[in-house]
Records
---
Amino acid sequence: MDPQRYLNVDSWQFRPSSAFNSPFWTTNSGAPVWNNNSSLTVGARGPILLEDYHLIEKLAQFDRERIPERVVHARGASAKGFFEVTHDISNLTCADFLRAPGVQTPVIVRFSTVIHERGSPETLRDPRGFAVKFYTREGNFDLVGNNFPVFFIRDGIKFPDMVHALKPNPKSHIQENWRILDFFSHHPESLHMFTFLFDDVGVPADYRHMDGSGVNTYTLINKSGKAHYVKFHWRPTCGVKNLLEEEAIKVGGSNHSHATKDLYDSIAAGNYPEWKLFIQTIDPDYEDRFDFDPVDVTKTWPEDIIPLQPVGRLVLNKNIDNFFAENEQLAFCPAIVVPGIHYSDDKLLQTRIFSYADTQRHRLGPNYLMLPANAPKSAHHNNHHEGFMNFMHRDEEVNYFPSRYDPVGHAEKFPIPQPILTGRREKCVIGKENNFKQPGERYRSFDPDRQERFICRWVDALSDPRVTHEIRSIWISYWAQSDKSLGQKIASRLNLKPNI
Ligand code: HEM
């Protein structure tokens, strides 16, 4: 070994674990590897010696390459870019990254399907995740949305059961309609979501040609403390495109990663995907004037009454360098907000606030927010430390608060919503359920061909031999309550009498 090789290495210099610039092969601990082709054996034919530390380390690392996949949204693709404010909404929020037109913030975005495994086809009828991490100067803001603007259920206590019903049968490992229709027959609040899932938009052409939505109601709050409920919406500048059944079979049959490839290739070709961000806002002082509850996630806010206001644009102009580091290890969480943006009492959002960080501590470990893709790009400081895989370099002697030795104090106070909260302890459903009106309106907004495709998909799903007469009748009654002719049409194709 040439001793000159080490002359430039200052062993006391701090080298981040990502330093990957050795001119020769090494073990993880930095020892030179002089042969990466053959195992260390006794004689030319073996056996292999346990003292071949490099071999053991290489196999052991390989054996642990996979981490648990996300319990939902396991299949996804990500890309980087920026968000730019185009319209001033500083009257609504004191969020620093929204402070003025022209302000740009780096982002990473992950698109996903929901139900199936990490390697599943991207042509399945399934909602698509649309999660954006804004690396702002005041810490990260995660807008963890979907391509549809509503959700199946409105209380997170039902989420694990809902996911179990949608996931493959635990016995056969096949996704089965009878289980899905059984579960949701107890939940007419899901009808609105099904007018998206069973519509043409249920299979987006790829990730570039789809809408996005924050789905849950959040709160914007300005410097003087005035709050507005807000819903966020992304609209692709290249328009929305979907795959009809036969197209999906063709596309998925020739490439089960077509949407990941489409995203990667278009960025590599300089054809950068772009979305415009819009908001809708409601003044909480007037929240009772609607026939729906503004914090009910199964409802859209009619755009003719609550118009879309433009805010900014999202441009994805950089592919990720490493799928594991910037996709598998990426962790979004609806609880990660910045001053000027707060949650609402939306019961589904409230449960999401807990669930994401909890699963990520399990999936990635307690220090998952130190991983480069998840760490804020702004400075941070607290005494949360140690734990598995903590790789932060720290040398302070005061790791408690308060202390007269540590000069770091509290941040400046920022406004949060101020309503006085009162009430008995209760477990109940919300007052204004209104489950049927919006699904019916949406169905009637489809042209006749689109209505026909919607009906066919329902007839097909309800024709699953394991769907009982009772479940079929419930679904027909639900659709009839949304739109009488829709219920009648599905019933007559199934040779049933609508019980309207
Ligand atoms: C109470 C309801 C919900 C619960 C408990 C829940 C829970 C979860 C969990 C545990 C994950 C996996 C996170 C990870 O391992 O990193 C996840 C991912 C995700 N969820 Fe939800 N979810 C809920 C509702 C929703 C809703 C309403 C939306 C849409 C607004 C949504 C969008 C997403 C997205 C986009 C991801 C993937 C994030 C990524 O790309 O890594 N979820 N959810």
---
Amino acid sequence: MRVAIAGAGLAGLSCAKYLIDAGHTPIVLESRDVLGGLVAAWKDEDGDWYETGLHAFFGAYPNMLQLMAELGIEDRLQWKQHTLIFNQPDKPGVLSRFDVPDIPAPFNVIVSILRNNDMLTWEQKVRFAIGLTPAIVRGQKYVEEMDKYSMDEWLRRQGIDEKVSTDVFIAASKALTFINPDEVSSTILLTALNRFLQERYGSKIAFLDGSPTERLCQPIVDYITAGGGEVHLKKPLKEIQLHEDGTVKGFLMRGLDGAADEVITADAYVSAMSVDVMKVLTPSSWKTMAFFQKLDGLEGVPVINLHLWFDRKLTDIDQLLFSRSELLSVYADMSVTCKEYADPDRSMLELVLAPAKDWIDKSDDEIIAATMKDLERLFPQHFGTDNPAKLRKFKVVKTPRSVYTATPGRQAYRPDQVTPVPNFFLSGSYTMQRYLGSMEGAVLSGKLTAQALVNSQWLSDLSHSTNDSASTRHQPQPMAKI
Ligand SMILES: Cc1cc2nc3c(=O)[nH]c(=O)nc-3n(C[C@H](O)[C@H](O)[C@H](O)COP(=O)(O)OP(=O)(O)OC[C@H]3O[C@@H](n4cnc5c(N)ncnc54)[C@H](O)[C@@H]3O)c2cc1C
């Protein structure tokens, strides 16, 4: 079966990889000249990498870890000490740690919370533990039901005071969704907490040893092409062309650099584009279907990724840090955390600015000036002093619409990978899967889409009635377990 996939983010690439494993022929068509979508990275004029986002991998990412193991690249993950580190807003430069001991879950996380007295009082810990009980006892069903409440509303209903939200959940909310706890669905944070409480190494963090484009996406592409599939850059989908019965006839691709438009045909078609693009490209005759109307309930959230290169070393902490500042979310000194970005003498801070809705239209200079002000609190020993660290250069990467905005009620709008159009499927971290808008969610969605394609009765009937030479090219493997 030949499958045309629009979008070479992690979802599109994962879908293609698992289609190869099942003996099919994916053709991946990416609009930009770079792989990876939201994990895309570029080299600047000095050969230094800069990225769409600072990306942390978690132990609770089974599908990502399995994919990397299948590609033989699992050693590219640099696992860090099992600890979560937070800045303290009232104590500039002072850090608070949740060190997770190497004992079975959930005791490891519970011990780490009990041992931390900087961020939660004993009364808050007890109330929080009681509040979490239904999530632990009733599991994901309860967690899904809580999608109607924001994190702040959920905490109030559990009798947990607001300080827990401003102290702890602001960090988790901004890191996971790029919005604040008064806006984020409680389902998001409860899902993450549940994973961390159930898996011994669930909250353990790893960084990739280089740029995601070269070190993660390229090996997937090599696997796809070695298996007879194709991956093309600079191939934007312009229109989804339909047969009279509403099924897809072809993908009309926009010709770039003076080239003519061309139609790509296949047995099945996948959109692995972001939900915002999919909404624009939905054919008008599909817009009457409830399934596609639901997409209007989803929208990408703005976020900004910053890279600041300094003339000296600011820290030797080899870990992701949660800033707990109003402006910034997580950050890391990539000259320490990432092998390919290593520099023994000078720091490169990568920082996520979120929520970014009030900043996305501001100039790079304004954004950097505000960030430098914040660094006085994060690194008081290096900024606001007589001899401050000097900023050598910076890069600002703005993404006006990134992962879906995870406000209350969004779960009901997240579509399945299977659509009412029998030869058209969706993939992407916004589609329904249990890992939210993350790299793990993207990889899982791609796998689910491949599985749905393989199991499609309509397509199976079609392939029996045609002589699909491509399907004889590879030895089909059983679909990887999800
Ligand atoms: C700043 C930032 C930090 C993040 N941090 C983390 C983290 O620490 N951990 C984590 O797990 N996740 C993180 N994420 C989320 C993660 O990057 C995403 O969930 C994931 O990469 C989404 O993959 P996707 O394939 O679903 O979508 P996308 O990456 O959006 O892929 C969609 C692809 O479709 C292409 N496309 C669009 N239009 C067309 C068209 N017309 N024709 C053809 N192709 C088209 C796009 O160019 C893109 O390549 C972060 C994201 C950002 C932005």
---
Amino acid sequence: MWLIRVLALAALVAAVPPEGKKAVEKKAASGEKKLSERANALADRSTNLAFNIYHAVAKDKSVENILVSPVVLASSLGLVSLGGKAATASQAKTLLSAEKLSDDYLHGGLAELLSDVSNSTARNVTWRLGSRLYGPSSISFADDFVKNSKKHYNYEHSKINFRDKRSALKSINEWASQTTDGKLPEVTKDVEKTDGALIVNAMFFKPHWDERFHHKMVDNRGFMVTRSYTVGVPMMHRTGLYKYYDDEAEKLQIVEMPLAHKLSSMIFIMPNHVEPLERLEKLLTREQLKTWLSKLKKRAVAISLPKVSLEVSHDLQKHLAELGLTEAVDKTKADLSKISGKKDLYLASVFHAAALEWDTEGNPFDGDIYGREEMRNPKLFYADHPFIFLIKDNKTDSILFIGRLVRPKGDKMRDEL
Ligand SMILES: *[C@@H]1O[C@H](CO)[C@@H](O)[C@H](O)[C@H]1NC(C)=O
Ligand SMILES: *[C@@H]1O[C@H](CO)[C@@H](O)[C@H](O)[C@H]1NC(C)=O
Ligand SMILES: *[C@@H]1O[C@H](CO)[C@@H](O)[C@H](O)[C@H]1NC(C)=O
């Protein structure tokens, strides 16, 4: 008798298709792979940088949409500290709250963090990322620097001749476009200071929702940039169980949407009504985010999101200077001699350019939930006016992206009234 049961059990085990088993094991492995202490330490530091850089950029009144990847920016600061000496290097570490960390710990930790969070295979999201350091044509890059910046931060190096500015700009933009599969056609129309080094990060990120939107439930709606200016955008809709919080005192809503494999999630923070985002931005700190997240409760939420692509390019050079990176950007003071062997270089621009595509794609989900009691009376989260968003890593709590959507692409709609 027991023999038959053992045999039956063996047959059952054998019946599990090898692909299915492998997929499950792989998923578990990527989710459970623990990061080292130093990678976790740098994840934590990069989160402070996220809020600091967001506020610095938001202060600039000419900026509408914002899109920054703090972990990528952290790696660019790692690069500055790798190539710098004296205060040029130590200020980059200070921006990362890493003054007390050894260089090996810093570079190793950032490298591990970046390669883990940007691993598209393990994370089931699309994240194309290219980083390049451009130097004037007179420069010769030091071998050690080229080797280490490639190893830790996947940086490429290139000389650029700005005497022919048009073709120089063209080659930067073409490289960015290639790096992002054409999703980011342009990093910049112009470069003001052509006598220094340029850092360029070019990215394309596309979240793969843990539960997809129905691709047919997309229609045209208005997005109110301001009370009196509305643009037409395609809007996608879905109702599901999400972590949600209605902050009645601050008149805002927060919803967290997991991305595939639940390794990261997108968090939306939106005022109840159309208003400039300054009021919310004053509230936005690391501590406040933690408080809000602790109040989220899983419940039925009907979500409507613009199905748009957001392309934003920031020159973060002056914002980094505001945060304390004053030496590297100053031609008379910068010491980036580990890059070139000479004290002949300063940081003229830090282009941080990204495209983020909100689409319906994601994993299939269990349709049976729609019959359930808990799906009745969903809260409405209707994102038809400016909001703040973050993409947070579930494993390290680091912030992969932080930004705001103020003005989506779209044509002005006729005022109703
Ligand atoms: C990305 O993740 C996959 C699956 O977990 C793994 O096999 C691969 O080595 C990782 N790649 C990098 C660059 O870490
Ligand atoms: C995510 O996973 C699904 C199925 O597991 C697959 O079809 C899709 O191509 C993956 N997407 C990315 C960006 O890896
Ligand atoms: C984070 O991961 C845990 C464990 O896998 C999971 O239970 C949780 O739902 C995830 N959170 C999000 C927001 O995806």
---
Amino acid sequence: MDSSETGRVVVLTGANEGIGYGMLTALVESGYRVAGLDVRGDAIGSLQESNPETVRYYDCDVTVDDDVERAVEAVIDDWDRIDILVNNAAVLNFGFFDEQTSEEMDRVFAVNFFGAVQLIREVLPHMRAQNGGIIHNVSSGAGRVGNPGLTGYAATKGAIESFTRSLRHELRHEPVTCTIMHPRLAATRSANTLGYPASQLSDPDDVGRKLAGKIESTRTVIYADWVTRIGLFVARQVPSLVTRSTERFLTSRER
Ligand SMILES: NC(=O)c1ccc[n+]([C@@H]2O[C@H](COP(=O)([O-])OP(=O)(O)OC[C@H]3O[C@@H](n4cnc5c(N)ncnc54)[C@H](OP(=O)(O)O)[C@@H]3O)[C@@H](O)[C@H]2O)c1
């Protein structure tokens, strides 16, 4: 779809850096109007200066219901509609289960799961009223196959996948739908803390661009590219590969 003709509006959380920022720039280049919601807005603000008609920064912590309500209202005031929501904001705190506090577990759920749910709660009535909308919830391979040291993070991604599949069923007679988006492993600030070899990490701008290219897709699961799709399929079919590739996390603990 040519977004410049239709003036489609995308709300994108966690848009200030990483894969979200890559999506933001690619969407703007394709003519979308993008509302970037984040706790920091320096990068979105710079892009807004050069693209005042198509980029807006909204200061929003997705764990604060009032922030979410205010940001969604402001987007509707500014642009009258929300065609697509991308729940991309997330936090990742590496740590073994017995070393993490319940507050740390609560925090990762507050951002990665309940933040997304709250955005959907606020945006859905607008999508229904305008008779259309797509909601993309960004997941992770960890949510599919698990990862030592990421019990909380992986659980939030497993939860958002099940939530999305169930909500998708609930919406199946409506003009609004929701999907699960799978990025490829990328060298972002949070992923870099996991110590993957550089050769396994993609450029976040490139991953964001690939996902932006699929922004109008309504498939149940959207993969950034075929490598991500095949990689996740193989990891599910051959669990020993996941055991082997994550062994280094346990070795580092025993040292
Ligand atoms: N990178 C990967 O390899 C990879 C792989 C699979 C899936 N994913 C998923 O892809 C998405 C993007 O990941 P990424 O690696 O690009 O992440 P990132 O670089 O860590 O960026 C996440 C963004 O979300 C923002 N954010 C954090 N807490 C927030 C909150 N409470 N409210 C609003 N914004 C908040 C962050 O702001 P601050 O940093 O200022 O807090 C940051 O701008 C995530 O859903 C992640 O789970 C990533």
